[in-house]
Amino acid sequence: MKLNHSFDDRKKLPRAKKLPVINNRLFQGFIILVIMILSAFIFSALANIVWKGMGGLAQSIVSPEIQFAIRLSLFTSFTSTIICILFALPVAYGLERFKIPGRKLINVILDIPLSLPPLVSGVALLLLFGTTRFGAVLAEHGLRFIFSVNGIILAQFFIITPYMIRVLQSTIADINPRLEFVARTLGCSQWQAFYKITLPLAKNGIIAGLVISWARAIGEFGCALMVAGATRMVTETLPIALYLNMSVGNLEMAMAAATCLIIISFISLFIFEMVGVKQIPASRIN
Amino acid sequence: MINLYNICKRLGDFSLKNINLNIEDNEYFVILGPTGTGKTVILEIIAGMYQPDKGEVWINDRNVTTEYPESRRIGFVYQDYMLFPHLDVRENITFALKLNKTPHNIMKQKLQQMAGLLNIEGLLNRYPSTLSGGEQQRVALARALVTEPDVLLLDEPLSALDPRSKELFQQELKSIHQQIKTTTIHITHDFNEALLLADRMGIMQNGEIVQVGTPEEVFQRPRSQFVAEFVGMENIYKGEIIDKNGEQYVSIASIYIRVVTNLTGIVRAAIRPEDIIISQEKFISSAQNSVSARIIEIIPRGSVYKLVLDAGFTMTALVTRQALEELNLESGKHVWAVFKATAVHVF
Hints:
Number of strands of chain B: 20
Number of strands of chain A: 0
Number of helices of chain B: 9
Number of helices of chain A: 13
Strand order of the largest sheet of chain B: 6-7-8-3-9-10
Radius of gyration of chain B: 23 Å
Largest interface: A-B, 22 and 27 residues
Mean pLDDT of chain B: 87
Distance between the termini of chain A: 49 Å
Strand content of chain A: under 5%
Radius of gyration of chain A: 26 Å
Largest sheet of chain A: none
Mean pLDDT of chain A: 87
Order of helices and strands of chain A: HHHHHHHHHHHHH
Structural class of chain A: mainly alpha
Structural class of chain B: alpha+beta
Low-confidence stretches of chain A: 279-286
Oligomer: heterodimer
Order of helices and strands of chain B: EEEHEEEHHHEHEHEEHHEEEEEEEEHEE
Low-confidence stretches of chain B: none
């Protein structure tokens, strides 16, 4: 039995550098503290508005201006989200499944609006549709974007589409392409394999993408401001209403608009979490 | 019938080089090779997932090289099953039938037939995520077979199963093939599996097929060091199953060896050298087979010795140095080779 030698060898092993000793409890306490501070900060900021806005909320919400803003916000955000998915789904699928030359470059281009300040996106759209022949031709055929409700939809579409594409791309990437391939050996055309296999498996991802994009669309301000302007009772969405009322010192109306936006965010976050959790086991089974 | 002519394909670092294969009707062909030699890519090229860079794929005298997978009439079973997770077992199996609008009564009949063949009648309403690996495998096979494909492609279908289910399923694959006789290509890295199932087999090494032949040919006359090392099994015989009073024997060179099997007719039997016990005298034991043999040669092989025996047929056995000395084994000596009926693999 020659077991002793291993103990001798151990002495020769290089020692790890000594780190300063921090008591485990202290470390855990620190982590918990940071979590508490951050969540308390966010919660109190939001709770403050909701709390203060509650008093005048009922009164403000029935005011024609907030009513108009809510209706306009819902209309524009639903419209832009629907147009967005019509573009984003084929794009995400194509980029994930087809060997498109220059795929990486296309990905980068599609991601630009994500990192761009919305104001810059707004200026870009304003110039494209307001000063070029392209914009003029569209306007002649009845598609006017500048300083109109169409402009809000356009701005929202421009801002949310990259998000939608990202969510859908990662959803589709999680679905094994061999599932579609097996479907093809069973007689599916490419379209049938997409429609019968990938689409149902991507369902939760699509719902998550719709919800998160819609929530972003309804909150979109900077880009829409540039393209559509901030005209009371014409292009006044909820964020614009918040901005207009704040700038004239009408705090109650501003807080009503803010409260509406907070409630919408909570609802969408809740839906997103619900489908997000379900999404993973469903699409990861092989 | 499947013919591959000069198939070449580069995929990243990996390439298939000049693959030529000819697989007969109703044949069970096994492609055997270590992991990462491109076995799956061959199947995916036959199935149409990839286009070859060069070469042609013919199925039943039809050039399908540029055809879409959906028109090639193939069944494909992946190692990880690839059942559709959003459909239950019944819907998975009837997927293809619904697609080509099979009348309801025929669909029902085919479903029953497949479920019966694969013994999955009880699973039809379950979802894939609730099934064990073996059950998923059966469903995947049923889904592929229900279309009555011209060609069945199996990509390591057993490698994700536990040893017991694996053994059961091997036997079952064999008997299913005997019933439906679909031309099959089966890919594996397990040579026992190839031995058990293959009518003929091809050995793959670094993207090339280095030898094609029946299991006996490949095992007995390996064409390269690589093949010899890869196959390793030495005692393989052809014989006929004989049923005597409900017990099965296989006759090899007029010697009867007791075996346990459901097969009948002409079969192959294999015994691993390490399963053979050498004794000086015939003795009564639970091992059912005692064969008188003469030692032809003793070959040292690392810590053990390989005995080459003549028992009417050539047989090799492994013994330790100690046994060699205690039994005074030497060339020309008569001994008894003893082995259990269950140690004889019949296929």
